Amino acid sequence: MNSLPLFQIDAFTDKVFGGNPAAVIPLEEWLSTETMQKIASENNLSETTFICQDKDKSYHIRWFTPAIEVDLCGHATVAAAYYLFKIAGITDDVITFQSKSGELFVTQKDGWFYLDFPAMDLTAEEVSEKLKKGMGTAPKAAYKSKDDWQLIYESQEEVENLSPDFNLLKSFPIWSTPARGIIATAKSSEEGIDFISRFFAPAAGINEDPVTGSAHTKLIPYWSKELNKTKMVAKQLSQRGGFLKCTLKNDRVLIGGQAVLYMVGNIYI
Q1: Which of 47, 103, 158, 160 is an active site residue?
Q2: 47 in catalytic set
Q3: Residue 51 Cα distances to 30, 196, 230, angstroms
Q4: What integer is the mean pLDDT of 47-76?
């Protein structure tokens, strides 16, 4: 019987039971996609990430929700960086991951991990009656990116009080094209916080994600333009909650978060 090490790490938080948990599984060689998906489904976390150092010594990373493989995940990349820097003892200043979304870079400074991801473009879309029904409250504007929808609300209170119809959102009859998930966002009403968000992804097996780093590849460019700022602090309004330091840098975004180790175990397959 073969065993694999598993590290469960809470990302975008400085204490356990906060932020967004991710399972990190370092591999010596790749498993089949089917096996990795089964492991992610068994873990039943919002993300299970697999990392493997290839013959060229570069790190490759893949992310799986309980239901699907995704092209990009922020909090699980923070968790993977925590593992490499803090547990595996990598001494490099920057970790480069090869991924389905291209090269991703992570640096660490003063206990924070900074993701260097590509910024994502948004295209304005119509706010339909079906969209209003699915979300429960109509946004003032809707945008589509490569993988997500971003909905803009008038106030933080509106976002806090959202109660979406997940069965309707899961089937995506309200969208012109399917999406990984739906970002709901507004300007923050809290001192020291620039913008807030929530993230819903029922089609990916996650009704509401605690903290979604990859969503900020769209949020940061949008709010940078709206607030006329390149450096911002963001908060995700889930039950666990999380804070992110955000910077727009040309066509890239820097997303900073902390992380803590929750559990170490072994998988037997």
Answers
A1: 47
A2: yes
A3: 9, 30, 31
A4: 91
